[in-house]
Amino acid sequence: MSLNIQVFHQSLPLAQVFRISRGAKTSAEVVVVVISDGTFIGWGEAVPYGRYGESIDSVVQQIKALRLSSVEDHARLNSMLAPGSARNAVDCALWDLTAKIRATPVGTLLNLPAINSCITAQTISVDSAEKMHEEAKKLSNAPLIKVKLDADSVVTKMQAIHQVCPQSRFILDANEAWDIKLLAQIVEPLKACNVALIEQPLPADFDDDLLGFQSPIAICADESCHGADGLPNLVGKYNAINIKLDKTGGLTEAANLLTKAKSLDFEIMVGCMVGSSLAMAPAYTLCGLADYVDLDGPLLVAKDRASHFSFDNGVMSDIPSALWGSGEAAFVDPELASLSSTKPHK
Q1: Which candidate, 169, 168, 176, places its Cα nearest to that of 201?
Q2: What is the torsion angle, in degrees rounded to the nearest 10, for the CA atoms of residue 201, residue 206, residue 207 and residue 210?
Q3: Which of 101, 169, 307, 312 is the most buried (most CB within 10 A)?
Q4: Rounded to whole angstroms, how far apart are CA atoms 5 and 86?
């Protein structure tokens, strides 16, 4: 008997406009995969990303073409689908399904350290210095803040934010918007603003410009880092990597990437695209080995899943048992139960 695979496109409205250097969005367009063996049901969520040539339709078609006989086929998934959000959604759904079949949490199956909570960054979108200053006031006691920036008035904006969040540590994310000249000019004043990490300052094609660059702030690869095979090319250029499941193509490769990155002395950041708690749950299993966590996607959507993470001043709760990966088949998120009997995306 083959596994039953359903795929759905969902549009999740955001609580407010989300802006990065590359553009703005008002909704998170996600793909949800539901997989059943006839007794148990697992699910996963992914976010197709145009930066990597993905669309909702292309991802849906990849998943619809997939045929799996049993959960044992999970071991062959990386050879059946290329890295990306399609494989991520399927991989995470299979882990959830396997956990229920074996009555064992996913973290235990992967030999990952269990945690009850973690501190996640909370995000401020790129805007004018005045508007970013006002947004920062809402996070004045946050321990870790992620600031989206383009190349305009970087230091001025950061100083305005630091003024109202003097005790916070900061991650700056340029999304490839800077060049090496700008980075060299601003890194010292940014250090004075308690910036701990700068994420993907240069376009991925310009990584070599970081060779020999002595930065007082750790530099983190995001768009430049996808899977474990590419790690050797980042040595000497980056101090840290951002692991996102939509880039690695799922939790399986993400765990492999984390292990190999640690062996090469990279710091670890576990990040996300903008999505619901369902997309964050698999990534959360890696957080016991992370130096930085950026999984605040659910805070950006207007309405989260029925079972969802809770957040208290940056402290992120454990994964709800009914949401994903607990191995407790008696607890099923009501939305999963509803989707499993719903007509999927055509």
Answers
A1: 176
A2: -70
A3: 307
A4: 12
Domain made up of 117-317: CATH architecture: Alpha-Beta Barrel (3.20)
Residue 251, phi then psi, degrees to nearest 5: -70, -35
Domains of the chain, by residue range, sit at 4-104+328-339, 117-317
CA distance 342 to 190: 50
pLDDT of residue 66: 96
CATH of domain 4-104+328-339: 3.30.390.10
In which element (H, E) is residue 297 found? helix 297-300
Tokens describing residue 176: 């490839």
Q: What is the DSSP string of 21-34?
A: TTEEEEEEEEEEEE
Are residues 248 and 52 in contact, defined by beta-carbon separation less than 8 angstroms? no
Place of tokens 């005045």: 130
Angle between helices 154-164 and 129-137 (to 10 degrees): 20
* pLDDT per position as a tens digit, 268-277: 999 999 999 9
Token match 């230091």: residue? 155
Say if residues 263 and 250 touch (Cβ distance below 8 Å). Answer: no
> According to the model, what pLDDT value does residue 343 have?
55
Inform me whether the pLDDT recorded for 32 exceeds 80.
yes
Q: Give 172-210 pLDDT, tens digit per residue.
A: 999 999 999 999 999 999 999 999 999 999 999 999 999
Helix then strand then coil, % of the chain, to nearest 5: 35, 25, 40
Greatest Cα pair distance, the chain, in angstroms, is 62
- Mean pLDDT of all residues belonging to the chain: 94
